[in-house]
């Protein structure tokens, strides 16, 4: 990231989703910034003791963002910047009607509360690259203005398409509010728990037969860094977030020391569910396309307009997750290197 000073530092920041990894650790970072007078952390769930300690001087409000209490909090604390980090995939619970209501109705109420509060001048929304969908008709790279060839019809991607619509509607109705939408690629790291981290942690990894998905990752530290960067610097617009480079799903599985299990597309989610035995979140139907075809983002605007530069590449993110995360190899790195040497020797001999 650039070391330039942050102009127009917010005075009073409210962050939703304070019990989540991204929301909670963002609150902790903002609370350490002496230029910010007040940091308010909001969630209907109480954060872990570890997160609460890290939040330091931040004030925690236990409230439901779907309720009128949010608008009262914005007004009473004279909030000028809202970071909406609450929309969640809710891995442990799946995508139920209750989660959809929290994502969609909750976000609608956040935008409505911002609209009614004169002090609010900025909204930063954590969206997702899942809004692009994933199919065989996709372009090599998705830019922010690229329409999905097959828009998500259900699940988290569909939720966030609706949520982004509410955020843009707010920008039209209150033209004095700068709206920044961040679309992170699949987030990996040693601490954050996601469906992708659970999937890549499997010793035997079901993959779609006959397909080779192209993947990008965003390190958990870069996801936090991008949220903090966007909070401190007014850059309205929509921005893809991802580490440099691309890896295939096969490369990711092999680097983790795990084994691929090719299955038909329609059996991917059921087989993952059986192998995981309910211990960790299973793959949802809307993620099958991603694991078959992958998704790659154009991050030009992230660098040139937002001004953010990730510290980790896609490959470095994957390797850090493997090294420090909760995955352990079935086949060690030394074994893979031995097999690679034997394969190269055999190919040389044939030539």
From TrEMBL:
PANTHER family listed in its UniProt record: BIFUNCTIONAL POLYMYXIN RESISTANCE PROTEIN ARNA, NAD-DEPENDENT EPIMERASE_DEHYDRATASE
Residues covered by the NAD-dependent epimerase/dehydratase domain: 13-241
Gene3D superfamilies per UniProt: NAD(P)-binding Rossmann-like Domain
Annotated protein name in UniProt: SDR family oxidoreductase
């Amino acid at each position: 990231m650039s070391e330039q000073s942050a102009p127009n530092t917010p005075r009073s920041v409210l962050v939703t989703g304070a019990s989540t990894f991204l929301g909670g650790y963002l609150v902790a970072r903002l609370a350490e910034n002496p230029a910010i007078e007040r940091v308010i952390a909001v969630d209907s769930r109480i954060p872990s003791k570890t997160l609460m300690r890290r939040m330091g001087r931040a004030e925690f409000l236990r409230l439901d963002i779907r309720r009128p209490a949010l608008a009262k909090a914005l007004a009473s604390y004279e909030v000028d910047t809202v970071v909406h980090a609450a929309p969640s995939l809710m891995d442990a619970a799946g995508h139920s009607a209750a989660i959809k209501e929290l994502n969609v109705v909750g976000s609608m109420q956040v935008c409505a509360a911002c609209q009614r509060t004169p002090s609010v001048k900025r909204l930063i929304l954590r969206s997702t690259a899942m809004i692009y969908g994933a199919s065989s008709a996709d372009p090599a790279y998705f830019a922010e203005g690229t329409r999905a060839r097959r828009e998500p019809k259900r699940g988290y991607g569909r939720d966030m398409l609706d949520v982004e619509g509410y955020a843009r509607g707010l920008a039209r109705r209150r033209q004095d509010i700068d709206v920044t939408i961040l679309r992170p690629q699949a987030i990996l790291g040693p601490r954050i728990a996601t469906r992708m981290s659970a999937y890549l942690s499997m010793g035997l990894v079901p993959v779609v037969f006959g397909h080779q998905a192209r993947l990008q990752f965003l390190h958990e530290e870069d996801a936090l860094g991008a949220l903090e960067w966007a909070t401190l610097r007014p850059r309205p617009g929509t921005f893809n977030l991802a580490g440099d480079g691309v890896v295939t799903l096969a490369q990711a599985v092999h680097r983790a020391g795990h084994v691929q299990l090719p299955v038909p597309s329609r059996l991917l989610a059921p087989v993952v569910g059986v192998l995981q035995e309910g211990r960790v979140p299973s793959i949802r139907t809307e993620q099958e396309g991603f694991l078959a075809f992958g998704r790659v983002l154009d991050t030009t605007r992230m660098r040139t307009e937002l001004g953010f530069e990730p510290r980790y590449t896609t490959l470095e993110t994957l390797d850090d997750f493997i090294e420090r995360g909760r995955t352990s190899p079935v086949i060690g790195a030394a074994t893979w290197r031995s097999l690679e040497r034997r394969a190269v020797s055999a190919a040389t001999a044939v030539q």
